[in-house]
Amino acid sequence: MGERSARVIIASTRASAGVYDDRCGPIIAEWLERQGFSGVQPRVVPDGDPVGRALREAVAEGVDLIITSGGTGISPSDDTPAQTATVLDYEVPGLADAIRRSGLPKVPTSVLSRGYAVWPAAP
After folding, report:
1. pLDDT by residue (tens digit) across 21-46?
2. What is the CATH number of the domain that holds 12?
């Protein structure tokens, strides 16, 4: 198997503005590298349209795996699900359900996540 590519997109208006450091992206990137993905660099973008642009860019580049974090809650600025829908071809709801379920022991509000697991459409 050849080299596998991955992109980590962190949706956080405050982290993208430097208000605080993103701690999630590096953890995901390190895990992905242990799984055989190489050169994974988290990309922190503001909530909203920048998330959609980053997703479409990754799909157009043929990235093998795209992981987003942030922006899936129920506040008005949490727009990652709507942005993800712009590249959605096939939803894989069981995977998103399993992710939410695995978070329950530490984060009871994980059930409020509106995150998707999808197979992207062709660019």
Report:
1. 999 999 999 999 999 998 899 999 99
2. 3.40.980.10
**Is position 36 within any domain?**
yes
Instruction: For residue 15, give the nearest of 39, 47, 40, 41 by alpha carbon.
Output: 47
- What is the extent of the structural domain holding 39? 6-120
Task: Tell me how many domains the chain contains.
Answer: 1
Query: Model-level pTM?
Result: 0.88
In the 8-state DSSP scheme, what is residue 42?
E
Within a domain: residue 1?
Answer: no
DSSP structure class, residue 121 = P
43 within some domain: yes
- Give the number of other CB atoms < 10 A from CB of residue 4: 14
Task: Give the side-chain half-sphere CA count within 13 A for 61.
Answer: 14
Give the mean pLDDT of the chain: 91
Note whether residue 109 is domain-resident.
yes
Of 96, 10, 104, 9, which is closest to residue 58 (Cα–Cα)? 9
40 CB-near residues (< 8 Å, 6+ apart): 6, 7, 8, 28, 29, 32, 33
Structure tokens at 82: 């709507």
